[in-house]
Amino acid sequence: MNRLSRRQILAAGALAPWLPAARASDFPSRPVTLILPFAPGGVADVTARTVGQAMAPLLGQPVVIDNRPGAGGIVATQAVLGAPPDGHTLLLMSNATAVSVHLVRKLPFDVQRQLLPITTLGFFELGLAVPANSRQGTLKELLAHARSQPGRLTIGTIAVGSTQHLSAELFKARTGIDALVVPYKGSPAVINALRTGEIDVAFEILSPLLPQLKAGTIRLLAVTGTQRFASLPEVPTVIEQGVADYSVDSWNALAAPAGTPAAAIERLRAAATQALAQPAVVERLRELGVKARASQPAEQAKLLADEIQHWGRVVRAARIEPE
User: Fold this and answer.
1) Mean pLDDT of 191-213
2) Any signal peptide, and if so, which residues (predicted)?
3) Is there a contact between 236 and 224 (Cβ–Cβ < 8 Å)?
4) In this predicted model, what pLDDT tens digit does every residue of 7-60 receive, in sequence order?
């Protein structure tokens, strides 16, 4: 074996600090896979595809969407955690990520320790909808009706533990009404039940409600954000109508496995931030009821921590047992 000369060793040492930077500049070296814990076609899926398509030319590589629904997000999360932590495999997080901490008795991972935040993509509130022929024209009228007939008001949502379901439980707690929350298999079933009068009110994200609102088959009494939704300026918030300390936002964000190089995280964050600033992306998300919003990793980490605490209180108050 040939010995290295002192000059060769010194030369190698001089080059060493530049090697990580050179590797970082080559990222990504192949397509980036974004794994979603949701089926195709929903708000999260379309959001991911819209932002991913805009990120691709900025990264110089395609962003491939891989839908892996199932087990409350566990399937998708484990797929990401099992991938090399090099920035080429990402997870689409949501507030369901925070809720799962309280709904799964033995979660096989620690989302705060094993996932690195990159950036949020967007936030979207829910709508409180009633049938078009409902006698209640405002939220105050709905609450008065509910209080006059305890236990009679029916609130439709999707599955137990979903943002919609927990938002309804939080609404009951904040208003003090006695109402029956009825979970359905999906948004189409909830909307159909609302249109036919099977339920009195529905808590649902805005995207599936907007076509029904335009068709005149439902009415929106409120939105759950802290501010009115720009596309529906005539619809007041729940807070505006006297329900203090009530706001709910769903959100989506990007995360990578722990151990992913900081340079890769920053490259992905910068590309997503630039994509979210593009007018076409902002408009497409707005059509879905989503407010495009990027963040720093630290902001996203705080959001997740706050959401875990918040939804934990709601789950316990609603006496939902983990499975």
Assistant:
1) 95
2) 1-24
3) no
4) 444 444 444 443 443 355 689 999 999 999 999 999 999 999 999 999 999 999
- Phi, psi for 38 (deg, rounded to 5): -130, 155
- Give bridge partners of residue 256 from the DSSP assignment: 116
List domains and CATH numbers for the chain.
Answer: 31-123+249-317 (3.40.190.150), 125-241 (3.40.190.10)
Q: Where are the alpha helices (DSSP H) in 104-232?
A: 111-114, 139-148, 163-175, 187-195, 206-215
Model pTM score? 0.88
Number of alpha carbons in the 13 Å side-chain half-sphere of residue 187? 19
Nearest-angstrom CA–CA distance, 190 and 155:
10
Per DSSP, what are the bridge partners of residue 130? 219
The answer to whether residues 101 and 312 touch, using CB atoms and an 8 Å cutoff, is yes
Question: For the chain, how big is the Rg over CA atoms in Å?
Answer: 23
- HSE, CB side, 13 Å, CA atoms: give it for residue 25: 5
- Distance, CA of 116 to CA of 126 (rounded, Å): 27
- Residue 4, Cβ neighbours under 10 Å: how many? 11
